[in-house]
Each structure stands twice: as C-alpha cells, then as structure tokens.
Structures
1.
Amino acid sequence: MTDIDVIVSEVGLRDGLQNVDQVLDIATKKRWIAAEAAAGVSEIEVGSFVNYQLLPQMADTGELVAFAKEIEGLTVAALVPNARGAKAAIEAGVHKVSIPVSASETHSKKNVNRTHDQMIDEVRNIRSMIDALPEQERPYFEAGIATAFGCTMEGHVPQATVVSLAERLIEAGAEEVGLSDTTGYANPAMIRRRIRAVHAAVGRDRLTGVHLHNTRGLGLANAAAALEEGITTLDSSLAGLGGCPFAPGASGNIVTEDLVFMLEAMGLKTGIDIERLVAVRELLKEGLPDEPRYGFIPDAGVPIGWQASLGEP
Amino acid sequence: MTDIDVIVSEVGLRDGLQNVDQVLDIATKKRWIAAEAAAGVSEIEVGSFVNYQLLPQMADTGELVAFAKEIEGLTVAALVPNARGAKAAIEAGVHKVSIPVSASETHSKKNVNRTHDQMIDEVRNIRSMIDALPEQERPYFEAGIATAFGCTMEGHVPQATVVSLAERLIEAGAEEVGLSDTTGYANPAMIRRRIRAVHAAVGRDRLTGVHLHNTRGLGLANAAAALEEGITTLDSSLAGLGGCPFAPGASGNIVTEDLVFMLEAMGLKTGIDIERLVAVRELLKEGLPDEPRYGFIPDAGVPIGWQASLGEP
C-alpha cells in the first residue's frame, strides 16, 4: 500500500500470546485478526510453527494462517524456530516467514539448543526449501536477530557480533534481517548505532524492521530513534499483551495503540484508525480477562485537536 | 559542574506533590532533597510560592529553600505564579525562579486568572525586582511556557503562538524560556519543530530546558528528541509522583529514575548514581504510602553489562 509510511506489524497473537498461559480460543483469535485488519493493520504475525506439546497456545497457527490469508491486503506472517517449522509455515501458505536467531550464543543454545553455525544451517535449508517452490508461492524470508542489544544471560552483546551475524544470515539466504530487543536492553543511541552498522554491512534494504520491548520504558523512544535511521516496519502488540515477567507494570512488546498514535501524531501514515484499533482490546478483555492490558492511549485518549499541528513548519 | 552533559532537574517536590492531597511532612521533604542531592542530582525545584490556603502542600517552601541552599553544589529552584510569589522566592534566596505562563490564554485565565498581557506585566515586574538586587543576590529567572504543545481546553495551540510568547517573555526580561508539555500532548516530531522554531526566534541559549509529562507514554521519546535539538535540562519527578488524573497508570512528569537510566545509557553524563537514586523511593513509600510509584528501572533494574556498549562506534 503506497499510502503507508510505516508498517505496524501486530505480533500480539505470537509474541504476546506465547507468554500467556491461558490458551485463547481460535474463534477469538480469528475475530482479533479480522478486527485489526479492518482497523487498517496491514501485517499480522498470527502465530508460530513450533512444537505444540511445548507451546499449546500456538497449536492453531496453521488454521489462523488459512483464515488470515482470506483477508485482502493483509500480509500474514509466522515465526519458525527451524527448517521443520518453516516447512509447516510454507505448507500453510504464509506470506512471510521469520526465524529468530539469537546474537547471544548462550541464549541460542538455551532457547533452541543450537549454536550460531547450526542456526545458519537452518537458514540455508529454509532458503533451499523456498527456492524449490514456484516463484509465486515463495514467502518472504526474514531472520530476526534476537538479543541484538544485549542478553539477560550474556549481558553485553558486542555490536560486531550482531553485524557479523547479519552478514552471515544474508549470505545464508535470508532476504532481510531484523533487530530484536528481546530483553528491553536498547536505548535510542544504541538503536541508532546498531542500525547504522548493520545498514553499512548489508545494505539499507536488508534491514527495514525492528522488534522492540518496553521492559525499561524506552520502547517508544527507541522506536522514534529507529524511524530516524530509516526503519519502516515496527513490531508491536495490542495492549502490550503478555507483559514482561521481569518488570511488573511493563508491557512486553511495545503497545500497538500507543505506537500508532505516536506515528500518526508525527505525521507518519500507518493506515490504521486509532479508535477502531483501541476497540479491539474488548476482545482481549473478554477472551483473557485475567491478563493485564497496557497502553496509555486507551485511557488518556488522543489529544484534542492533535491533527492541527501536522501542517506546521 | 562541567562533567555533566544533561541536568536532570527534580520537580517531584513541586509538580509531583502539588497533585498529592496528603501533605508530606517537612522532615521527609528535607530527607528527600538531601538524598537526591547525595545521589548526584544537581538541581531541585523544592516547591512553589503560592497561596498556601489553596495549596497547603507548598506552605513550607521557604523553609525548604533555606534547607536546600545549605547543600553544596545544589541549584535550588522554586516556582512562582506572579510577582508577589517572586518576591517571597527572592526573600527566601532561591537560585532560580520560574514563572509558568500558559500559551493557551484560556488555560492562563482559568489557572491564574490572567491574560497573556497581564502575565507579561508580571514578568516585567519580576525583572525589575531582580534588577534592583545587588548582582550577587540575583536569582536566575526563567519563564516556563505551559501548554506549549496543546491544551485540554483549547486543544491545538499554534506554534506561532508559542514562538510569539517566547519572544515577548524574553523581551519582558526572562533570561530563558522553557517549553512545558503540561497536558502530555507532545510527540517527538512536534518537540523538534517547536524547539527549532523557538531557538530560531530567541536564540539557542534562551531555551535549554523542557518539562515533559508522560500522559500518553511518549515522555521519554520526547525527551530523546529534545536532546537532539540541543536541550540540556530535563525536568522529571521521582517515581513519577502525582500521576496523571486523566490517564490511570500514567505518571504525570516523566520518571527521574527512567530518565537518568536512558541518559546514562546513551552516554550522556548526569552525575547521578542510579542505584542511590532508586533508593530514595523508600522515602515516598514511607511518607506517602497510598501514592502509586511509577517507573520501570526500579522493577526491571538496569541491564546487565549495559555500560559495555558505550564505547562502540
């Protein structure tokens, strides 16, 4: 859609729900997807193709992909931990496959029991799998660099590690890398430095999206810094669903409602109707009554007359 | 202090407490001031010289000024609504006098029952009062432009109104103007535009500080944008004290603890020890047990190894 400046990619159904114990019924998930798409959200990560014994919340991802693909103009994304998951995602027909690869090797081993070399192999295998498809059936393939700004196990993750991993991931066949602040360790200066460094290494069109958390309250400040470095896709989660277990009161992902307000108030078109977006929270209230819902805009409302400042010099 | 890049000006004792019904005892206020100064905070607005019948919380401002002035290296600031208040502030011996002047004339009339012209007269009178003092006794005199990004009564406040008011305030004798987002209406793009416009009109050294609220969660994003426009003083409130009545869960002022972390993580020296700063919250817990305490850093802690990224290119 050419009338959008920034793509807000809703990841609540994946990154939000994966941190929620109560399994949300598929009917509510479908209504959530449909309602956000109707509000103007153009990209939704509907789930992940993982081991459902370990993560029953994600067991219906295939069915959600099929449902979401029927919505015109919606980009349907899914996360996969490895080539096996990618195979399932491709069979389900997703538009976009994302594999998280942790810059912290300690985190990678702990999280998916794989070293960097093993993850690069997974990326190569997925690339081959995609290349074997007829051109019109190939999903877009992205590798999200997790713990790209630091890790709760390793602490500091050097910028050089992130840059080198980005180069290897592109070389192995990812069309794009993303930077994920999995642990809420980033700050605006670091965001700028690392985006610049990765852009310099692999090219600006190979890094267009970031995935930010709000663990330390810097999520939107980091988003604003990323925009100024040319980032055009921002992940976020409705109501900040899932929260952050290490910081009571902190959403996990940045909150979609607040992000959309910030972008629109900055004159950046998202294609999203804020009022209709906020209304989607009702589904979470009904479906997951015990989960806290974060965000400021739903309580404070948008400022009176806020659009009047947009034309000012 | 030359080893500070950004002055974090603590306003919790004024802007925080003025929104708290329970009057905090003066002994706790003094301990609060002393503890923040010991943590490295170099400027504290200790209260306001207002009508104490209307705002009993501020009745001890004179005594707090006397106390705070004994702390070496601390800049002691106070807010005054008019020339009468300024007289009291000067008699108490403050280092810095701030008068808020609302860009929204509707807000100005409602809040202090004065038009712009009348407020300009107050500024002129305060200037004369200060000029009549021996040079070494003159406080620094700042006018804070309230509702500088919009108003809950008028809605949009044109940028031209803010710029013109800044010019008039400087002409009337304020050494500096500040921009206050009284209503939490600002966004990073607007922050940049308005700071640039005021800088162009009155000079960069006539606007070095902003006062931000976090009503819509954009407080730190706005702070980061302000820094990039050359702002070097940021107001904030310990624990975001006082909250925002229009947005449950939202601090009023931006939270000092989170702001200091953001600045230090960006490599900007504040002179403040985060751990000692966070410990000051205990005083609020004891003294104002019913008031919510906001902020992410106190719960989440600083990231492990966060300082290691500071030297990266």
2.
Amino acid sequence: MPYGTLYLIPVPLAEDTSAKSFTPFLTDTVNSIKEYIVENEKTARRFLREAGLKTPQSELIIHDYSKHNRGTGTGDFFKGLQAGSDVGLMSEAGCPGIADPGAEIVEKAHRMGIKVVPLVGPSSILLALMASGFNGQSFTFHGYLPIDKADRSKRIRELENLSERNDQTQIFIETPFRNNPLLEELLKTAHQKTRLCIACDLTSATEYVQTKTIAEWQKRIPELHKRPAIFLLYHK
Amino acid sequence: MPYGTLYLIPVPLAEDTSAKSFTPFLTDTVNSIKEYIVENEKTARRFLREAGLKTPQSELIIHDYSKHNRGTGTGDFFKGLQAGSDVGLMSEAGCPGIADPGAEIVEKAHRMGIKVVPLVGPSSILLALMASGFNGQSFTFHGYLPIDKADRSKRIRELENLSERNDQTQIFIETPFRNNPLLEELLKTAHQKTRLCIACDLTSATEYVQTKTIAEWQKRIPELHKRPAIFLLYHK
C-alpha cells in the first residue's frame, strides 16, 4: 500500500483570527485527516475546532511530540503514514518547523520517502518581513539573541555589520516577557541611523508594525511586555 | 483626515489555486479597496477576479510600479492614502516585498506614517522551508546565486560553510530556465553528504518537494526546466 501524505498545517498566531488565517483548502484538509502529530494536544484540539473540523474529536489520533521528545522517540508517529493514512503536523502557533521543533518530523518523513505537503498559513516572520519595508531579497532569521547582556550587545553590532555588508535584513525574536529589555539594549547599542522594525500581535486586533530609525524610536518607546513580537534590523 | 491603510496582499503562486491561497479576510479586504499599487496591472486584475472581487474592474484605480520605477517615481501612488483611502499592494506572485521590488513602497509608507497591514498568503520561500525538514530556527534567503560558473561554485561552497558554521538553512532561487544548470552545478560542487531540498511548482497540482543528500540526488536527477523552484541547502 502506498504511504500516506504528511500535511504541514499552520496554526493561527492569535485568538479569534480564523478568517485571517485559514484557507478553504486547510479546512478541507483538516476534515479529511484523522491523525495528527502536534506540539501541544490541547492547543491542537482547540485549533481544529476553530478551523472547522467536523469529525468528532474522540475519533482523532493525536501524537504529542513535545512529550515524546522527552521520552521514547517518534517511531510510533509514522505507523499511520506507513499504513497509508494521511497525517497532519501542527505546531503551537504559526508554521510547523519554522522557529519550532517540528522540523525533525518532516526530516524523518523525507528519509522514509513519505510525501510532504506544506499548507499556506500565517508566519509571523514572513508577515513582519513583508510589512517592514526592508530588503526581502536577502534576509536572515536568527531566532533568539544571547541572553547575557555583553554577548547580546556584541551580537547586535554583528547583526548591523552583517546587514550593511550583505545588504541583508536581520530578523530575530525574544521571549515576550523579555521584549522590553531587548528593545532597551537595541536602542543603546545600535547606530542612530540603523532602522528597526517592530512587529507585534500580528493578525490580532492590537497588531502593531512600525519601522523607524533607532534615533526616532528613542523618542518614543513602545510597550512590548508579554506581546509576541518580531524584531527586524536593517542598516545600509 | 486620517491616512488610509496600506494592505499588503499576497497573490497565488500558480493558476487555479484560489482555495489553497486565499483567506476569507483577503477576499473581504479586496472588496473594501478600490485602489491598488501593483507590479503588473494585467496579472493584478486577473488575481482580483480570482480572489472574489465584486467591484467592477472599471472602478479601480491601479498604479503599476514596474512602469513608474522606470520613469517618474512613486509620489502619485500615495495621494489616495494621504486622502484617507485604503490601498492594496500586490506583486506578481507570492508576498509583496519578499524577493520582489514592492519593499520600497512599504518603506515609503512607514516614512510617511501610513499604517501597514500584511495579509496571510502564499510564500514559496516559507512553504519550501517548512517542507524541507531543515533548521527553521535559523535560515538565510539569498535570492539568486551568481551567474558566472566559477563565482557560482565558489558561492555554493560558501553557503555550505555558512550552513555548517551557523547550523543555518541556506535558501536560494534561480530563473526557471536556468534551474537545470544550477542543479548540475550543485551536484558537482557540494559535498556528498550535504542535504539539498528542491521545492517546485508549490501549491500547484504538480507540486514536488524532496530532501535528499547530494549523493542521493546524483542517482536520479529531476527535470526542473522552466518550473518555478526553490533550493535549500543544509550541511551539518
């Protein structure tokens, strides 16, 4: 029997944003699949409801990879696929495998010769890049910057240099409760003329995206505490 | 009067993929806007029809930035926004400003204090990264590699080094009619164990996404001529 397909299913970035997040194909896919590999079972079940799932939740098979990673590995996750069932992969928010640990599931699928199909959906990195006005022909996403203060200011200066040398947008994130200290550090360390885009609460009613020079940001510092944010830096 | 909002509107990557590409919010937005800044007027009008536009096309104001860039600048594009009208920005395919020249329109909007709202939609870079199984916590998009053969193999080796040193996925594209020569070069230049993901015809019926080592690809070379493709390289 041919293997099933692994569908990569993006999840909304914020609550009550279904109309902004889901394509009709995503809803159809969700209704044609009964087995999922997810980062968090509770979030996943709520998401499936929002996405228009008609299958009773009790009929779903859900593998939680954040639990399994701590224990016995992910071998079991692929039995359904090998037996010909289609399976959906979902992370907690945004696109599976982008800034989250789902990539190793996809990697394994490729190794096993399983077909992988990515679905269109929200990615905070991509939305932020699009909305920044910075160079989208060359960009790097770095994930998190170092926590140590000295390392972090060194890293900020490195990112400025990379941006200037390669005409490249530098993108990074921070744990939401550390956003304010990171911004403070950026305003202290980066050049006055470096441009910084802050994109936060993307797709939600409180969405905020602004691009300014460091000098301009210093005049009016936004409150970012506990708001999911993406930072983009561009120096040329 | 307050300024209008600049909506960044992604466009499908392939024909007949509306259900895979559009969110209900995108269709609503398109129906609430009468003025557009676009990369290609003809493509844009076709897209708006597919996206469920109800406004008669004759009532639309369309600014073509690929024409204007060659001539008189983009000053006129912002008059509607300054007078309070919402305006949509669209590229030929995918997300405006990502691997296309729309970014300068967004940059100017920020400078003028105009609100920018990015919409969820298809990005071949992001879909390919998600489906590659490579590191999505650190990645660089480089755009095109050099055309000159010697420069190109040098660049491929640089990308391998970058990937190894930074544990970072390296993403690049090529003009579709040059895909086959690029793949040949990759198979000749890169290490046997380097992994290469080829993602082509994304979202369309002929979609193809596979990740293999260079050694595996050498055994069976896919035909990529004139198919829109994304290449991802990962070496660790």
